[in-house]
Design brief:
Layout: H1 16-31, E1 44-49, H2 55-66, E2 70-74, H3 88-96, E3 101-106, H4 111-116, E4 123-128, H5 134-148, E5 155-159, H6 166-175, E6 182-186, H7 195-203, E7 207-211, H8 214-217, E8 223-226, H9 237-243, H10 251-254, E9 262-264, H11 285-305, E10 316-317, E11 339-341, E12 346-349, E13 355-357
Parallel strand pairs: 1-2, 1-3, 3-4, 5-6, 5-8, 6-7, 8-9
Antiparallel strand pairs: 10-11, 11-12, 12-13
Helix pairs in contact: 1-5, 1-11, 2-11, 5-6, 5-11
This protein binds phosphoric acid mono(formamide)ester.
């Protein structure tokens, strides 16, 4: 369904060769930015941010402006007709007729896919709830290439809110496609990596371990990917406070790490990395955020080229069956076709990847 445009909903909708081409293009833009300063002359990008953002929104806007294009959009739905009750379908339809490309962030999982079903231009997922954040993953991969020179045979520690962290979900899915990567999941019991991500790693033959202690894990790592405990994803303040401050990377912990470790973080940081670590040459999170502009420039150019087309719903529409995930976009946008992958007793929601027993 929907083969009109190419969209970026999930990186895994594209082959690894496509990701590698994007990274190569970003490397060329990084080295020769003036060669690209008119590539998008006359083009318009819309950024629809239903959730707060600093880096993703502004780096997309910077990217488009540096390519010669223009930007429209909102960063607070309260200032748009969403506040009057306009649904996602109508907002997408309208804005996709004003712009050549549309970047969307939303608190509900599966929103980018839902938008793409009715859009009249390519859609880019800038984060859909706790589900996926593919352009952060492209940023992370570009950073790894620039700073480590490879995307394979890395031992990567991911620390913090692994349950709700869309950036770590997207990153693990992507890096599992490169040979020899090994993962160490560092989290509390309550914030463990979701089973569906671990199943993907297993299917790709990737080794992973789950540990509690950052102190014990840090010395073995090539990459440490810190994440914020995401207050906005918890059901109550009490649950958030129980998890907050479990992990704080400080200079003492850094003293046990390899000399060529790199520390990444999608940001924003709250307290999980002490500001003293910022001056350590291995702390690359600010550089990582800057790299995000170049990979997004490469992505905009590639998506506007519109050579390939995206099949959005690959499974089967089950009338009368609903996704049980209250954070799935189908729970609020009731008109969406309820499409699931699989035909057995367990099916998977095509919007949010949540499993459901059909018996
Ligand atoms: N990394 C990231 O998504 O940051 P923002 O929320 O500021 O966009």
């Amino acid at each position: 369904m929907s083969l009109k445009y190419n969209h970026l909903v999930d990186l895994n909708d594209y082959p690894v060769s496509w990701w590698n081409s994007l990274i190569s293009l970003a490397q060329d833009i990084y080295s020769n930015p003036t060669n690209y300063s008119h590539v998008c002359d006359g083009k318009i990008m819309a950024t629809l941010f239903y959730e707060p953002s600093t880096r993703t929104q502004m780096s997309f806007q910077t990217a488009m402006i540096r390519l010669g294009g223009s930007i429209i959009g909102f960063d607070n739905p309260a200032n748009s007709s969403v506040s009057k009750g306009e649904n996602l379908k109508d907002t997408t339809k309208i804005v996709s007729n004003y712009a050549d490309i549309l970047v969307i962030r939303h608190p509900m999982a599966g929103t980018a896919k839902a938008s793409a079903l009715t859009a009249d231009c390519p859609i880019i997922n800038a984060g859909d709830g706790g589900h996926l954040h593919p352009t952060q993953t492209l940023t992370d991969m570009f950073t790894l290439m620039q700073e480590k020179g490879r995307l394979d045979h890395l031992k990567i520690g991911l620390c913090g809110d692994l349950m709700n962290g869309r950036t770590v979900h997207s990153l693990c899915k992507a890096l599992s496609c490169y040979e020899g990567n090994e993962f160490v999941f560092i989290s509390t019991n309550e914030l463990k990596m979701p089973s569906y991500i671990k199943d993907i790693l297993t299917a790709h033959g990737c080794k992973f371990t789950e540990v509690f202690s950052l102190d014990e894990a840090i010395s073995q790592l090539d990459v440490l990917y810190m994440t914020r405990i995401q207050r906005e994803r918890f059901n109550s303040q009490e649950e958030y406070l129980q998890q907050k401050d479990t992990y704080i990377l400080d200079t003492k912990k850094m003293s046990h790490a390899k000399s060529d470790l790199i520390v990444l973080h999608p940001l924003p940081r709250v307290d999980e990395i002490s500001v003293d670590v910022d001056s350590d040459r291995r702390a690359l999170y600010f550089k990582q955020a800057k790299y995000g502009v170049y990979i997004r420039m490469a992505l905009i150019i590639t998506m506007l080229d519109n050579k390939s087309k995206t099949t959005l719903l690959k499974g089967r529409v089950h009338n009368g069956l609903h996704c049980d995930n209250p954070k799935c976009i189908t729970s609020t946008e009731k008109y969406l076709p309820m499409s699931f992958m699989g035909d057995g007793t367990t099916v998977i929601c095509e919007y949010c990847d949540e499993r459901k027993l059909t018996d």
